[in-house]
From TrEMBL:
InterPro entries with a match to the protein in the record: Arsenate-R_ArsH, Flavoprotein-like_sf, FMN_Rdtase-like_dom
Matching SUPFAM superfamilies: Flavoproteins (SSF52218)
Binding partners and assembly: Homotetramer.
Cofactor list: FMN
The species this protein was found in: Byssochlamys spectabilis (Paecilomyces variotii)
Identification of the protein by name: Arsenic resistance protein ArsH
Example of a GO MF term: oxidoreductase activity, acting on NAD(P)H, quinone or similar compound as acceptor
Domain NADPH-dependent FMN reductase-like: 97-240
Keywords for the protein's UniProt record, in alphabetical order: Flavoprotein, FMN, NADP, Nucleotide-binding, Oxidoreductase
Length: 310
């Protein structure tokens, strides 16, 4: 009886599968695993920056950011992504262009504070970061397409290589302030597509316990806007507890936590994806249906020209 059972077990025992061997590693791709603790930054210096751009779109820059002391972002070990960004900047002579949107008009807006923290990380990684202020943007309508704030938002999206979206969660979803910004960005304006092919990082702040409703909605929006949303995401519960009380030193800075680390992860991942994908945007945007549509239009135009000459 037992010998038969042992034989059956031997017959049904499958050989162990070989452990997967990664074809690519940091070493084979020309990078080293992060270990450096010394301060290194690719940020645009005040001397090299456009004064008007810096004043209007970089409110996240603090006086302490002029040096390595006093800012937690400067202490982050980001060796690999810094190497990638430095190599990309050297090869292309173009910084990654990032548009940051947030979803609140409150005086002390936690989505804005988190957006600023994300911007500081991206800025250190060499990105040309521009934060759009939604104050004054009209509610979406069919009459104000030429409104200065509408044109500003659309031009920033066309300019960008990627977006970072940070929204509060209100009533289980993203806020009207945030959605209004997306509604003003068209899928296409003639042959220009303001969002297609851009990379996207998403984050939300919660007034209560952690939730993912807003980031789920942001991910859906990104897909509909034909953007490549990174796999990672950030959701900060009880956001007011992650900052010092208003009026206290550092009241606009995230305190150490796993949630802050996750935000760093997202920005690091976003930069890596954008560096890898930016050279291939035209390839990703090449679609059969659109080629066919152009072919039909060109054929009709050619037939019309032939008819007019006969």
């Amino acid at each position: 009886m037992y010998s038969g059972l042992r034989a059956s077990l031997r017959l049904n025992t499958r050989p162990a599968l070989p452990r997967p061997r990664h074809r690519y590693s940091l070493t084979t791709m020309g990078y080293t695993a992060g270990s450096e603790k010394t301060y290194r930054s690719l940020a645009i210096s005040e001397k090299d920056d456009d004064r008007d751009i810096r004043q209007k779109y970089r409110p996240f820059i603090l006086e302490e950011d002029s040096g390595a002391e006093g800012c937690w972002v400067n202490d982050l070990e980001l060796t690999t992504v810094l190497d990638m960004a430095e190599k990309d900047l050297r090869n292309t002579n173009q910084r990654l262009k990032v548009l940051v949107l947030y979803g609140s008009l409150r005086k002390r807006s936690y989505s804005r504070l988190v957006a600023y923290e994300a911007s500081r990380i991206l800025f250190r990684l060499g990105c040309d970061v521009r934060v759009f202020d939604p104050e004054g943007l009209p509610v979406k309508n069919d009459r104000e397409h030429n409104h200065p704030k509408v044109q500003e938002l659309r031009e920033l999206s066309v300019w960008s290589d990627g977006h970072v979206w940070v929204s509060p969660e209100q009533h289980g979803n993203l806020t009207a302030v945030f959605k209004n910004q997306i509604d003003w960005i068209p899928l296409s304006t003639g042959s220009v597509r303001p969002t297609q092919g851009r990379t996207l990082a998403i984050a939300q702040v919660c007034g209560g316990s952690q939730s993912f409703n807003a980031v789920n909605s942001l991910r859906i929006l990104g897909r509909w806007m034909r953007m490549f949303t990174i796999p990672n995401q950030s959701s900060i519960p009880k956001a007011y507890t992650h900052f010092p009380d208003e009026g206290q030193p550092g009241d606009q800075r995230l305190m150490p936590s796993g949630n802050r680390d996750r935000l760093v992860d997202c920005m690091e991942e976003f930069v890596k994806y954008t560096i890898l994908m930016r050279p291939h945007l035209d390839l990703f945007a090449d679609r059969y249906s659109e080629r066919e549509e152009r072919r039909i239009k060109e054929k009709k135009a050619a037939n019309g020209a032939t008819s007019s000459t006969n």
